[in-house]
Amino acid sequence: MSMIPSFFGNRRSSFFDPFSLDVWDPLKDLPFPSPSFPRDESSVFVNTRIDWKETPEAHVFKADLPGLRKEEVKVQIEDDRVLQISGERNVEKEDKNDTWHRVERSSGKFMRRFRLPENTKMNQVKASMENGVLTVTVPKEEAVKKPGVKNIEISG
Predict the structure, then answer these.
(1) What is the pLDDT of residues 62-108, one digit of tens each?
(2) SS3 (DSSP) at 86
(3) According to its UniProt record, which protein family does this protein belong to (predicted)?
């Protein structure tokens, strides 16, 4: 749980999350490119929202990817315990006779990366997609008992 509440909605901030590879950019949601992270046309869809929760059994990631098919999304695990979720939403083909009044849906490539904790079972990751929601489940290893201290009574 984050120690800092979000001021924008009920989402928790991941500012102090040691596993997050996200870099906070205060200008990322503005309609012009941020000077700190210039974007090209192919990266317009980068602000894909992903929730990460930890249960006693697993780490569960949920991403809202409306309009995408599972064939357009890629889930990968790198050797250094990094989960990468990426994909692309293609632009609709335009007809020369159409007049657009508003274009609000984003398109282009996206990629999100998360460093997983050491207690994950990297070879048992599962992913599923239903109704535009991608769910990635990363099982956790059983908690290893730390050696305790046992007092030995001295006789004599």
Answers:
(1) 999 988 899 999 999 998 899 999 998 887 777 788 887 887 777 78
(2) strand
(3) Belongs to the small heat shock protein (HSP20) family.
